[in-house]
Specification:
2 domains, about 60% helix, Transcriptional regulator, TetR family, about 0% strand, Tetracycline Repressor, domain 2, Arc Repressor Mutant, subunit A, mainly alpha, about 200 residues
Amino acid sequence: MGRKPAITRSAVVSAAIEIIDRDGMDGFSLERIATALNVRAPSLYNHFADKTEILSEVARAVVLETPRIPDPAPGQWRDWLIAESLEFRNSLLRHPNVVPVVFTWFPENLLHKLYAQYSRLLGDQGVPLSRQLFLLEATHRMTVGSAMCTATGRPALVELPPNGSVEPSEGTSVAVRDADEALFVEMLRAFLVGVDVEGGN
């Protein structure tokens, strides 16, 4: 009978996310992960080739936290795409220190799978094939870019402070954070309404 492994891939990824959430990338190391799991650092190489593979799995795990939105009713694909994008952005911002990791090591194979799935859905909604990838790639970039700005301390400037400085005071920074999500939704909606889908809904 084989001996049960001391650690698993999922445990390593969970420990890595917890460390980055708490201490940022400056606190991330194989030694810190091993300590959290009460093992020796070289044992991690039984599960991962190197640190890059761990970070790739961290990015994948955070992306997969995003809940799915029910398929849209006829003619409601714009609202559905906004809701999907907002859920993804919120999932990223639950781990602000991990957002740069997701940005760098985004799971492209997962993205391609989602694009294929979402393209079929948009096609069922009457969005022509020539516009499907454009819509998905544009909203994806807007979502990741917005999350990256917010996670790294640069939320959208809703309005300039009265003195004209672009550095918000403590009071204005709270207002900016509160309005950041609403501005993201407004930005997406303006983009989607302005896209010519050649007779799509």
